[in-house]
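writing this on my phone so excuse typos. first protein, seq and then structure
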Amino acid sequence: MPMWINADISNISQNSTIILANNRQVLAFSRTWGRQNDNCSLPNAVSWQQYLRQTWQALDPNTTKRLISNKLGRALIQRSMQKLGQLKVDSQLLNEVVKNNDYCSAHLIDYAQLSQSNINISKAFAAWMEDYQQRKQQNNLLDINDLPALISQHSDKLDKPYIYGFKTLTPTQELLLGKIGYQTLDFTATTADNDKLTFANTDDEVLQATLWAKGLHEQQADRQIAVVCPNLNANHQQIKSIFAQVFDNELVETGQKSYNISLGLALTDYPLIRHLLAVLQLCGQLQKNRISTETFNSVITSPYISGAQNERAPRCLLVNRVLSWAQTHFSLAKLQKHLEATKQASALIETIATQKTPAKQSLEQWLNLFDDYLEAFGFAGSRSLSSTEFQLFNKYQLERYELNQLAQLDEKISESAALFELQSWLAQVIFQAQSGKNQIQVLGSLEAEGLVFDDAWVLGMSADFLPNTLNMPRFIPSDIAQNHQIPHSNFALIETDSINTLNNLNSLAQKVIFSYAKTHFASEQQSSPMLKFDTDAIKFEHQFTHHKLQSLTNERAVALVDKQIKSGVAVLKNQMACEFKGFAMRLKIQSFDEPHIGLSRMEQGSIVHSALQYLYEQISTKEALLALNDADLEALIEQKIAQALHYYPSSGFKKNEQQRVAKIIHNFMQIDRQREDFLVLTTEEKIDADIGGLQFEVKLDRLDEMGNGDRIIFDYKTGNSSKNDWCGAIIKEPQLPIYAINKAAQGVAFIQLNADKISIKGLAKNQDSLPKQRPHKECLQWDEQIELWHKLLQTASVDFQAGCAAVAPNKGACDYCDFDSLCRVNK
């Protein structure tokens, strides 16, 4: 690592033990030792926790007690909390409980003190921890907090270690090291030449620091450079983005970059692990025959499973098919008939779906089964992994085996519980890909303390950082916290800690730049009172300047070659509403409704259409309709609705829909009985339409022949409808006009079918052919209206074929538009 410690290590021998405050200081010590002692073996340099584990194992190598990891300890604490009635234990609560338990151990706070307090959450916390201690004792377990007391019993057998980098020792550390004896490697403070810079905003601040680091690195590639960010965790994405932009290395592996941002993410935040968990979720869903649309689509398009490359296109089409169902879940039977083009995926699904697994088994058995699932899917084995992906998968396997230790403490559990355990475990594992010999280190303030670089810049020197704020532990009463000197529990401790922090930052290099920004996104900031900054922000000249956008008029695409199209009605409707919207139909972009519970509006409309089709196939005349008494008509309606609903699974939604549709159709029958004599010629008839040379297929809901010989085309509408949609200079709903032109009819009408209102709205050559209509000023006489429709539709067809694509939407054209991502019209 490109850093070292600033201390005199001349008296240290290769047999010495050095305890350092954190793992980064351990690495820095190793590098410092290597520079000063080329041919000598490295002393035993360890962090505090490493020292405890190492010493305990050396003192009692044959012990029957098992030392558990911090993650396993967290899992056991969670079980104790749940056992005692805390049903919901999220990661935030668990983190706070673990932190408070560590405070109790480090500051010698007995749980009995908390139990005797009058604060309920302190009593609950003490009960959780006492149960956790009992659980460890029953299973012959130890955690890291148990080791100082055990080691102190053998303090006379231990050599005195050196310590370095600790601001202050905790009472537990003082007690143990006091018994053993120790020597301090004093940090050699330097008097730095410091600059203090003020910026208008954090983007400017981070950008300037990044450019500064890059410039120094280009001047001298082996310079050790630090960029310290106190709020690295919160500002990680901002810093990562700006560094990638300046260094132009977004796609470069971490180990090959000239900088390293010292902040890992939870394993579950990485795509590979998310895909892995999705595979396991899908396997469980396949066996339960209730498949989540979201999970299935994530897995079937995953690049990490077998056949991802060979079947990429058909799998994407399969996703479109699943999305078109607009369901949150679906059955395997519904999926299987669409798997012909994805043979490998079909085989994977069949293998898992037919596998029999017990309802409950041990966690170890579930983890072994999960391994089998991943192997069956060829996970991470069918493509070359990047360096980061390879490290991620190896880390998963290590953590999976560590989680297996938990299996020895649990009874049999369900598959969903086992998967939850695995996901929860991985969520608390922080991972960062291995870095190379990066000369630029971007790190937090705690990590930077005790280290030395050639050059250093400290960002974010606002009042939010120094001095620290009062921060009481959640489960430890304030009086106990202050008496036991828990950090940030009183102002004296805060002042001391803030001074130590600033001194450490001052000693990062011979010259340190401190900076702060007046604003962070939309929030104003004040500078730290511990440093004096100029009130005026630096006028920063950006390397990247904004150019005025240039407008390019491009309103015509190439002419259409193939005149045979699909969805011709929608094409002409969109072309008349907005030329660009019509042109976009050429791209054949599919849009899908959001998954829904129950029946969608489209499904409800389809059920009404089907029921009426079946009904009028049997009752084709008004005479036949009038011949039915009410009971026979009701029975027939029920029969036809049941026929329309035949393919829908049984549910409360289906039952409710049957009742709703029965009421609508019954009300419509009363209106149809009052019409003039009619003969239903066709229902749901498909015809070939030709509009200006554009050819497509349309389907008529219903065609009647009236007693006077007129033919009337009807279109069922389960939503609202109006003659305004096709009377006037703009045709908003061209379906009926297209029918009328291609079928030589003498009238057209909407049949509005909804729970609120049943009505027939239309236009006919002979007004007696339809129920009495309100006059509409925009509607012409029938022959004139047909001529106008023909002209408007002909123009729209010619424009579409010619490639007219001006972005000039009519009123309402942008409502519910599927092409927002392609269009820049102001809405």
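second protein below, same order as before
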Amino acid sequence: MINSIEIFTGLNKCVDFLTDLDDTTVFLIVSREIDQQDAVLLESLSQVKSIYVLHCDKTKNKQSIPLCKKVRGIYTNMKSICETLKEDIRHSNRNLIPMNVISQTSAINLDELDPAFMYSQLLKEIILDMPHDDNEKKILVNFSTKKYADSHAQMAIITEFDQQYDKPSPVWWYTRECFLYWMLNLALRTHDTETILKMGFFLRDLHCQIERLYLQNKPCNPLTLFRGQGMLPTQFEKLNKSKGGLLSFNNLLSTSTDRQVGYLYADSARQNPDLVGVIFVIDIDPSVSTTPFASVHEHSFYGNEEEEVLITMHSVFRIDELERIEERLWQIKLRLTSDNDPLLTRLTECMRDEIGGDTPLYRMSHLMMLMGHYDKSEEILQVIKSTISKKDEYLDALLNYQMGNVLLAKGELNNALSCFEKTLEFEQKMFLPDDPALVYTYRSFGSVHDSMGDYKQALIYYEQVLEIQKKLLLSDPLELTGTYRHIGVLYEKMGEYSKALQYHEKNLEIDQKYLPAIHPNIASTYINIGSVHNCMGEYLKALSAYEKALDIQQKSLLANHPDVANTYNNIGAIHNKTGAYSTALTSFEKALEIQQKILPSMHHVLGITYSNIGFAYQSMGECPKALSYYQKTLTIEEQCLPSEHPSIASTCLNIGSIYLLMGEYSNALKYFEKAVKIQEKSLSVDHPDLAVSYNNIGLTYDKMAKYSAALIYYEKTLSIKLKSLPTNHPSMAIIYNNIGLLHDSLGNYSQALSYYEKTLQIQEKSLPLNNNDLATTYSNMGSANNSLGDYQQALTYYEKSLEIQENLDPINQQTLSNIYCNMGLVYQSMEEYQIALYYYEKTLEIEQKYLSHEHPSLAITYNNIASVHNLMVEHSQALSYYNKALVIQQKSLPSIHPDLAVTYNNIGMVHQSMGKYQTALSYLEQALKIEEECLPPNHPSLNITHYNIAEAFEYLHQYEKAVEHAQLAFDIAKQAFEPDHPEVIENEEFLRRVQQKQKATLN
């Protein structure tokens, strides 16, 4: 059917419109002369299926109009176009019938059907079981009227349907190929449950008529049917490799007893250059197959024109043989079979039992929830509630319980809690405190408190459930798994990982013993196990568990199910931690694509995915993008979650981390402290998440040169981690590394080296030998040795780091460039300037290839190259590179970022070396202005800038100002460093020198 008509007077506007369309089939009528270039352009658009040229000028030769494969013909009037178009649309709809192909040689099981087949089967069963309702037709008519309000032809048919539905038969209406045919097939193809439910009575009547005709006229002998259609080359290629495999259809299948009818459809399809024409030759042995089918020529809208046989939904065929007839035209022999995937069959039975329920409508609500259609599930429950008697307290409690579960899945926690409270109120009147009927409600209370971040209260409820279950000596061990699952997840959130893993492994043991191998609950258990391994830093184990979960979900859930999105998120997080940032981003975007289709825009789960995408961009150095995603997360969480929820704290930490990277230290501290305030109220004093917050505050104070404060927070972090984590946990290495970096900043290089060695000992035990974090530690040890003047030892560590990087697959380009940079610094310290320049240029080569042209890391490399040219007294080249660095920083950093001050300082010092002291002063004063705004008053960078300004004034013989700045430099050095630090000694000597020059001038 045609959903809309768009008219354009110019080709460019038409092309712009077409290129913005996704998953849309376009039939294009061109009513003006087109040249060869236009024809090629239109041919290239994947959205355009067919082109019809209206050529009214009979004086012009048709041969002058260029033809392309998509041009269906040249017509002299619209009537002939409409006739062709109508037939083409009919064929197009036929080609859109979805199918699922399982190859005999595929990596998955031979008889493994798409999970959509199972869900639509369950959906059909429930619809067929629903009692007749006189209001159903009215609902469908109103629904269809809204859809086709702009189509006069369809509105007339809808009116006819409303008034005369019972006179013809359901088959007659379906074969008419009007709004009913289009809506039903589209809904079945796209799993549009809203439309399927509204068409439920028609689907039921149609199936029952086919089944009735099948039973009345069931053939005794085998027969052969034919179906012609087009297939995409990729789809056909899969089918071509699947001899002996299965082919399933969720939709009704139109076939014919006349081979010629099948041939005509197949031949017509191959006229489209994007399709392969196929004739399905279907053999049916009535003694084997139980799938209903019926000859409908006596009941069809088209009469006996096509000798049509309709096969009802959920038909499964064995692929026997493929034979090429002509170019792009194939014959495929199929056998209708009752064979099914044994796993999927068992899972369907299991799901059927799980859905349960006294009424079809209640079962439908439960099915909608399992499929992730939470709004539809809630809507059905509301319908049921409106029809029950207020005196039926039992059913009311049951509906409140189910509604609570739906609202919990939707993230409406307070409303969910209210529903569970109503259920519990009824149950406490009816049952004893340890009655098994209370188990599900207590467990749901635990889930809500868990989601609210109230872990202690959640644990009380879960333990209450477990106590009841253990008293009962359950005959069905599966009853325990839900409780084990919840307790395990809770212990993970509380930082007690070994307990969490213990409960999840108990759960898995029961699941694997009593459930089908592809049951979604087993996937959930693998997810939980993966999550604990992730928290414990065992990333390969975590990834393995997540991939097992995804494999099960892809076989048992719909493609757009929320759980599939969650698993993509988990897999992305692991890739991000192992440095595979682009792979991580791809996984996160897959998750987001699913969630945006099925969740409200302010759902808290969307916030998690936005946060993950932000983290990927942060890892890639794209701070503004990362910040925008983190802020999206915070907006959602502040609207959806309680104000003291731990997730809000996590997001504040992420935002603080970005501000830290951007040099906005006061903003970073604000968000880190906000996170700590929430965590200290909602978490235990030794929770690992508090350690993360303390560590970040320590990092910020470190950057602000408030080293004493930084050390206090690092020690708080270390204290928590020593209590809550194994001694060789990778997180222990992180805090030792940070303390080492702090001592490095203080000039305590030997102490720094001592902490780096502790870091290394942990990493060598807990990480693979070829690990990016290990390479970073070797690099830090190289830096400390460089500062101690042990250049050969520094190079040894850098070479170890380089060896690891070169053996990684894929190579972490960012770390590799850092190693080259550090090796350049060592050779620069050794005054081997040409070698230093060689390594800086290798760094630059990588960064220009993998980073944006305005990435801050490029500016650092330009600064390093410039510094070597300056040392080689190549001032013009030095200035050129410093200016390149400055241009990048002015575009990519805040105007008061400390890195900008460093570059202004460097440019000033080059001008000073060239004897341009006034120019030097102007740059140095710009550096000072930035540093005074963004750094604490005792920061070492301020010491350097005051020192450089004092030198410039000394060269200008302005000794009073020189003494003023030299004094400030000395005062800062005394505050920032220990009394015997080389910086303090040098600053004191410099101050004495300029004071003597000032005195000499005064005398």
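The chain is about 65% helix and 5% strand. thats all i got for now
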